[in-house]
Amino acid sequence: MTLLTKVLLGVVLATQAGTWRSSASLVEIDVHPSTVTLRNTGTAGATLRKLAGRRMEGYGILIGARALGTDSARYAYVMLRGDGALLIKKRNGAVTPVVRDWAPYPAIRPDDAQGRAENQLEIRVTPREVAVSVNGTALVTVPVSEVYTDGVIGMRLSHTVALEVRDLTVAPSR
Predict the structure, then answer these.
(1) Residue range 30-48: mean pLDDT, rounded
(2) Which helix (H) or strand (E) segment is 127 a member of?
(3) Is residue 174 in some structural domain?
(4) 44 - beta bridge partners?
């Protein structure tokens, strides 16, 4: 099953029995080759298994992406970190404002002694808000006006993170 394709350099990507593995030596964005999108409402989610990487480097899901690989790229993203913290941020060209800064949450499984962790991340977009859940627990809700929601869905990894992604799903609202 081929799920993702490389957009930026510094990527090792291998498909494996319904999962994919990726590791980044630079910041990396991987997107679905058929350009899976949300059209302002819906849900994106995946099981993210961190295999290696520094504790303070993030990994997660991006939504609302447009013009990836260009100087005018724009998207929003939710990242998890090895200390059990979560961040919501967006990019508009070279500008990357923080929507919700790194904060720890008990529902996020931190790295174990080997630097590994597994978390299920879900982003639900409604006409009014974006709600983020980890491992079935609602953690953060932000007004939809604070992030980009209409565009490509993908994964975002920082620097030395090696990640296995399973059950990447994108579903429109009903």
Answers:
(1) 71
(2) none
(3) no
(4) 123, 170
Which CATH number is 86's domain given?
2.60.120.560
- Cα angle 138, 22, 45 (rounded to 5 degrees) comes to 25
Would the pLDDT of 167 be above 60? Answer: yes
Give the span between the Cα atoms of 73 and 68, in whole angstroms: 5
Nearest alpha-carbon partner for 115 in 23, 58, 51, 159 = 51
Phi, psi for residue 26 in degrees, rounded to 5 = -130, 175
The residues facing 98 across adjacent strands are 89
Domain count, the chain: 1
Domain assignment of residue 173, yes or no: no
Q: What is the Rg, in whole angstroms, of the alpha carbon atoms belonging to the chain?
A: 15
Question: Domain containing 152: what range?
Answer: 5-168
Name the least confident of 18-27, 43-52, 125-134, 148-157.
18-27
How many other C-beta atoms can be found within 10 angstroms of the C-beta atom of residue 104? 12
Say what the pLDDT of residue 23 is. 55
pLDDT reading at 34 higher than 60: no
- pTM for the complete prediction? 0.83
Cβ atoms 79, 58 nearer than 8 A: yes
